[in-house]
Model the fold of this input.
Amino acid sequence: MDYKKTAISIVELVGGEGNVQNVIHCMTRLRFNLQDQSKVDRKRLEKVPGIMGTNISGDQFQIIIGNDVPKVYNAILENSAIKMDSKGQKSSAKGKNPINAIFDVISGAFTPLLPAIAGAGMIKGILAIAMAFGWMTNTSQAYTILNAIGDGAFYFLPIILAVSAAKKFGSNVYVAATIAAALLHPTITALLGAGKPVHFLGLPVTAVTYSSTVIPILLAIWIASYVERWVDRVIPSMFKLILVPTITLLIIVPVTLIAVGPLGAILGNWLSLAIGALFKYGWIFAGLILGGTFSLIIMTGMHYAFTPIVMNNLATKGYDFILPSMFAANMGQAGATFAVSLRSKNKSFKSLAMTTSLTALMGITEPAMYGVNMRLKKPFIGGLIGGAVGGAYYSAVGVKYFILGGNVGLPGIASFIGSTFVLAIIGLPIAFAAGAIATFIMGFEDIESEEEQEATTTEETNTVDTKSELVVAAEKVFSPLKGEVKALSEVNDPTFSTGIMGKGLAIQPQEGKVVSPVTGRVTTIFKTKHAIGITSDNGAEILIHVGLETVRLEGKHFTAHVKDGDFVEVGQTLVTFDMDAIKAEGYDLITPVIITNPDRYQTIEPVKQGRINTSEAFLALQ
Done:
């Protein structure tokens, strides 16, 4: 088995690193607690080389590996940002690039929204074209309805994004949607837009427009995930249903209004002052910096802070020098997405990239940014480079924006009509080409198509070495327990009952002692002491698993009398356990005894049925 390849496939197919709350392993399987089990691709997982099967037990998703499970577990930790403490709890991943972490959160939260924002973006693009050619007026009822269809996903973006972000952060999606809905409530919008001071319990609330913003709601739901978990821990079970969401809402909505949301507004005000000074003294660097960062500014919602400056410039000077950089930023993102559409080999993703590139040219960049460029990371940087190049050009030649048109894409080029119109038109393909070229040079890791994924899985499966030499000499395995012999089919765990782990029998113990069934060496005694692996001198690999799900006892009620590597003889005590205490905690003590390398034998047959004592003949291997 290629442990690294198997580990990488497992992390991807359980929904990615962000979907893993914690992971531990027992003697035979990886045990995942996931944010969302619906993200798991069980069909493909079970085709990965080294995986014998999967199982769901309560809120735990289990992947059956067998004897190699510790190596696969270590490979997962070595080849991903998932880091676990001694109890299998997820810890912070030291050294992970914080920029990549932010991109992962944003792109991961936006990926499920792609159909909605791509469709809505296309409608807005069509409307922009219809307006530009005079086919429709913005006062017609048809325009009003179509505009609502296209604009709804963006106006209420905080609500649908809150749902997706809650899944990403592992919090309640309906509480998250309620937080966003409160921020967009008409009375709150009216209150914040009235121009009068607003206070909540004596604390000032800064007037902020939350519609179409991204960063404020992401921060709010991120904080809410911690508040919700903390409240859930301290509230008694009988009151959780009512008090956990109530307390979370009462904390998060005011905190967002008072601190989180206004943070963007405050930064925006400072930014607008800095941009004004930059254009006054910085010349070409002003456009380069603004064009290269405007896509980031739009994400935060801080671009609204530029509105007073733009309006003042148009009123006092008759032109504006800021909005041309916004045009350049949009063209840069469109160019980057266009490059993705040319280079991607995934047909469906190629189509998505081409479509969103067109909507970005129309001035609707969200589908391109969140659906393609940020998802692949490097193309987003390519788009920023395109915006910087276009913005630098506009500053260098002194392009001016004369008419407040409301669209910063191709339908809005009439806003440039004036003394610098030709220079403004030249700048659009410059920014577009710069974004595309930068993306081509940097490259990106393409999204695999389903056909490629299936082919990779098939190829990996076909490379597994299935050859094994049959053991000629017969061998007897003696009973490791005193009790009642049962068929594996009677074990209430599909990992054992279906024979995934191998062939053998089970014993319902009548005494809390496990002895060696063969002469050989202890290959593994799990740290929780509930499972022992032994290899006989003749090569039989035997797993003795005391009870079902007893790994959760973390060694309580078990005592080990041997350690890894010890030589043992038939009848030597391996582990003792307190049967009454384990039963009292609700665990089934039926103990599977499995031959985990059955391919080395022609037959594996039971020797005795019914009651059995330790060291009596149990299985015959031939």
User: Anything to note?
Assistant: The longest strand covers residues 503-509. DSSP finds 21 helices and 22 strands in the chain. The longest helix spans residues 240-281. The radius of gyration is 32 Å.
